[in-house]
Amino acid sequence: MNETSINKQYQNIIDLLRQKRLKEALRQTETLITQGNVNPALTNRLEQDKTSYEYMLQYMRQGMEDPQRKGMYQQLCAGAWNLADLIRLNLLDKDSTHYYHELRRTQTYRPSEISIKETLHLLEGISDDIALFRLTANGKPLPSELLQKHDNNCRDIFLETWTNSRWSKEEENEANLWLESISLPSIDLCIMTSAVTLSLLECFDEAKLLWLLQATRHNETAPAQRALVGLALALLTYGKRLELYPKITQALTLHNEEYGLGIQLNRIIIQLLRAQDTEKINRKMQQEILPEMMKNADLLRQMRLGTEETEEEDANPDWAETFDRMGLTEKIQEMNELQMEGSDIYMSSFAMLKNYPFFHDLVNWFVPFYQEHSSIAPLLTGTNPLSRPLLFLLESGFFCNSDKYSLAFMLQYLPQAQRDQMVTQLTNADIDRLEEENHVSQLQKHAARPEVISNQYVHDLYRFFKLNRRRTEFRDPFAETIHPYECEILRTLLGEDKQMRQVADFLFQKERRTEALPIYQELTTRIPDDAELFQKVGFCLQKEKRYDEAINAYRMADVLKPDHVWTIRHLATCYRLSHQYDKALEYYLHIEQIQPGNATVLYYAGACLAALSRYEEALQYFFRLDLQEENCIRAWRSIAWCSLLSGRWPQAAKYYGRIPEEERNADDDLNAGHTSWVSGDLPAAVKHYRKAAARYGSHVLFRQAFDRDRIVLVGLGIDAEDIPLMEDQVF
């Protein structure tokens, strides 16, 4: 069997289990076993499950009352799902070339069997050794052997945990010791938390999910926030399956009641949703913001203030005007706003800096940044003149851990001449002033906030799934649509009105209206007196061109909040776009009563009257618009068209003639040709038609446009037999 075939048959089994077709799922599992050489213990488990299910069905046929039947069926379904997981892994371990299965086959990362508990004690001991060395070292850097020993043990436990598909009871108890340890560094627990998350995404494990849940209550912020992100990803991945595990659902419910788990998870969900917009932000950064700033780099350099105390520190007021004229103010403000809301604006900048050997080791994508990591310690400790400014930059909270390592390696591998130049340009006075102006302590406090830590970790995960060299071997959670309310337990945790509204508003703001719509629709059933919700439902439907449904939503909003101009205007727009011009006109006239002289209303009211063939009335609106706006080309076009259709041909010719040549389009020349033809000026008509054909760019497009107006021309007195002849005059 090949990898594709194994995964396909496994997915068939899972689909049957989701449909509660247990007997068929067990048969498919038996077929999967017979096609591959799996562990005999798994075959025995399958036989036991089949026998148990047959007994349960037999008791049911005999009409025997069994109060435990529901629970037993749930256990059998969960067991069948777990068994399918293990059989799939067992088969893939033999054939797959993925790193995960390669490690499970060879176990080469671990020279000897060391338990989770023993690794914990090793890391605690290393932490004690480091603390002792600092007491006696008189400022000397930590020995590289000690740092390397720490990093190697972290790597080993990461790989061991990741490739362990299911913890035994003993392993579960030993893993819990990591959460209870008071001497284990936060960095090490962060690495363990990431390993548990990655393992859980490879294969469901009840024990690991409960471990992550417990870790969310850890007193160290960094591992607790990592656990929250991992828990959110697990719940999104396995949501419906969790209904088979009452222990998990009970624990989640309890944590929600006691610690507000749902509120915290809701924040993580929004951060995950925001991460999905990273590619769009990257394109904007690469195509709009950065090119504009690079184009004006000289001006930005000129605006750097001096550092001497005797110099005046006022900026040239002309610079602000120059910024506005070049559009830089808007670009910089946009970039700042994206960064303040937590968007990932650095992905594109650091994507090319993930090829260092450091990132070839899987664990290093998840290591929290710390200056004593064996790979970068020489750069950031001791007398290196770059260490102080670099540490300031890395502690400010601007970058995720992965990018901090990238930045450190970039400087580490710079030629010595360039490093010396940087040191020369960045004096101690510069650094002192920089630290004072930017309030380092405040930035460090900001970087330590839970929401900042979790968001930066989401950025780390995003880079791992998008950039690591084995990324095709992993299921990418950021490439999948996030459904936060798809299963019962997620709805229990995240289904508060306020939380749902936060998610919907985020999606709405990011123009992901298809995802926001069903959430808003559900909220309108919960909060039926909220006009804004109905407005947003209407707007989402309108953008999907579902105009009749949008009208219903807008009308509800209008009932709840009468005479709101925004609602009335969108009602008018939906009626107009669905060609219900009489109803659209009613709403435009209503707006005109509230906002007399609104130019947009004048135009569309006239357009609706014209569509209803009420040309004389339409002309009155277009004339008012022409008086109100100087050189109003849209008014001239409309006046000309209505004049043509109402028999005022000289007036039509006059207004088509007003449109400047550079503003004219193909339709203008076509309609001017119609005007000349019905007026009897055939040479002028041919001239206009030829200009129109040139603007359309092809004979086909011109003939299509001409034929579209055939009924209009006949209605204005043109003989239908002459139309083909006129078309031939043009070419």
In short:
The chain is an all-alpha fold and 731 residues long.
Shape: globular
Query: Quaternary arrangement of the chains shown?
Result: single chain
Structural class: mainly alpha
The main sheet comes to: none
Helix content, binned percent: over 70%
* Distinct helical segment count: 41
- Average pLDDT confidence is 88
**Rg (CA only):** 35 Å
Spans of at least 5 consecutive residues with low confidence:
303-313
Strand content: under 5%
Distance between the termini: 67 Å
Number of strands: 0
Features:
single chain, 731 residues, mainly alpha
Question: How is this structure best described in words?
Answer:
By secondary structure, the chain is an all-alpha fold. Helices cover 72% and strands 0% of the residues. Helix 27 packs antiparallel against helix 28 and helix 30 (547-560) runs antiparallel to helix 31 (565-577). It starts with a helix and ends with a helix.
How is the topology of this model organized?
Elements lengths: L2 H16 L3 H14 L4 H22 L7 H27 L3 H8 L9 H21 L7 H20 L5 H12 L5 H17 L3 H10 L5 H18 L7 H14 L1 H15 L2 H18 L1 H6 L14 H10 L1 H13 L6 H4 L26 H4 L6 H9 L5 H12 L3 H10 L2 H11 L1 H8 L2 H18 L20 H7 L2 H13 L3 H14 L4 H13 L3 H14 L4 H13 L3 H14 L4 H13 L3 H14 L4 H13 L3 H10 L7 H13 L3 H15 L2 H10 L1 H6 L6 H9 L1
